[in-house]
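This entry is set out below.
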Amino acid sequence: PLGVLLALGRTSSYRALRLACTIYIELMRGLPLVVMLALAWLALRAFLPAVWGVDRVDLVYRVIIAFALFTAAFVAEALRGGMSAVPRGQREAAAALGLRDTQALVFITLPIAVRNAAPALAGEMIGLFMSTTLVSVVGLTDMLQAARATTEQPDFFGRQKEVLLFVGIVFWVSAFALSRLSERVEYALSGTRRRR
C-alpha cells in the first residue's frame, strides 16, 4: 500500500507531493538495506517511543518497519513504470465514459499498471525474500544463522556442508516456487491461456 501511494504521489500533478515522493524513493533506493536495518536497530528505538508513547518498540517490529519502508520505494518505482506504460487511449476512453479521475485511476490505470509491473514486482518479492538473511546483522536469527548454530551441536559436528546445502536448496526451491507463482499470476492478469 505504501508503494502504491508513493507511485501515485510521484506521478501526481501537485509539485510538492511529487517532489517529496521522488526524494523519498531516490533516498531509499540509494541506501543499502544493511544501513536501513542498522537505522532500525539504533534510531527507531529512539524516535518511535516519542511519537507513539511506547517504552520500547520490539526489534522485530523495527526490522519489519525498515523492510517495509525500504521495499515500498522499489515497489513504487515498478508501479510508476507500469503506470507510464498505460496507453493514453485508455485514459481518454475513461474520460469519454464519464469516469472521474479517481475512478479512472482505480478502475483502469492501476489494474493495467499492476499487470505491466507484475514481473518487476515478482522480482522484488524474490529479492526481498533473499534479503531476509540480513536480519542477522541486527542480532535476529535467520535460517542461515540457525543452520550455523545447528552445526555447533555435538551431533552435527563435521556436517557443515550438508546443512549449508540444505539451506541453499530451501532458498532455491522457495525462489523457484515464487517465480513460477509470479508467472502464473502474470498469465492470469494478461488474460491469455497458458501453454502447457
The mean pLDDT is 85.
